[in-house]
Amino acid sequence: MGDFSIAIHGGAGTILKKDLTPELEAAYTKGLADAVASGYEVLSKGGNAIDAVTAAVISLEDCILFNAGKGSVFTKTGGHEMDAAIMNGISLEAGAVAGVSSVKNPVLLAKTIMEKSEHVMLSGDGALQFAKQQQLQLEAEDYFFSQFRYDQWQLVKNENSAALDHNIQLEKKFGTVGAVACDANGNLAAATSTGGMTNKNFNRIGDTPVIGSGTYANNQTCAISCTGHGELFLRAVAAYDVSCLMEYKGMNLQQAMEIVTLDKLVKINGEGGMIGVDGNANTAMIFNSEGMYRAMQHSRGEKQIAIYK
């Protein structure tokens, strides 16, 4: 049995100390601490990476502060459309869901799609029907309501464009959440979940549920979960590009993530960040924005919770 580790993120963007009250900063810190502890507990008891990232992301989805699950942003029509994905580095099996409503924990739906169907991605009403068939927990619309997300939406709902969280004065960040883990057997997994863009229209889908763009895991290289301007991460195939640089160029995790996040994405104005882990339980948390809600814990005793650059 080897070392194990987990890393999580709760979104990246223009996150400045002057914009967060001490109370809000403490609340975010607690949300990150709870999530990383949930995942780490699974690993410390000999659990696998898939269950660890699922536990961590569920914790973040259940925290109203983050734009996933309970605190998801409002769409153009005033509803919620959530996306999530999960990937197993052992087998390259993956599950994803796009544009689903009512499902309490979209990451659990993604995991169920991976384990209980022959498909990788389900969307919209079909995904909801599958969730009901699998008896996953559903919630009424008011469960997903949060006042500050509603206030954000009120600012932009009469405009014709979707707004990234970080462009709205009330909360300037990309609110995707995610987790990556390496278990004691050296197996990797990644999971990502989001409510998407405030005021999004036409069933817009970002990078989160797209395997290789926002989420990727391969035991031979790394597990990656991204957060940022989804359209640019999609075009960059950001998560898989890190894996490719490791596989074909022989780079280590830190080097590969820095090239994608600090060079390739910057060149196309792709703001955001990513977390990663490799098969030796090394973790990295890289971002090109002003901040990223992030945390990690390693079996050797290292632990970090951070928000700002």
UniProtKB/TrEMBL annotation:
Keywords: Autocatalytic cleavage, Hydrolase, Protease. InterPro entries: Ntn_hydrolases_N (IPR029055), Peptidase_T2 (IPR000246). GO terms for molecular function: hydrolase activity, acting on carbon-nitrogen (but not peptide) bonds, in linear amides; peptidase activity. The keyword Hydrolase applies. Substrate binds at R204, I205, G206, D207, T227, G228, H229, G230. One of its GO terms (biological process) is proteolysis. The active site is at T176 (nucleophile). It holds the Pfam family Asparaginase_2. The keyword Transferase does not apply. The record marks G175, T176 as: Cleavage. This is Isoaspartyl peptidase. It comes from Lacibacter sediminis.
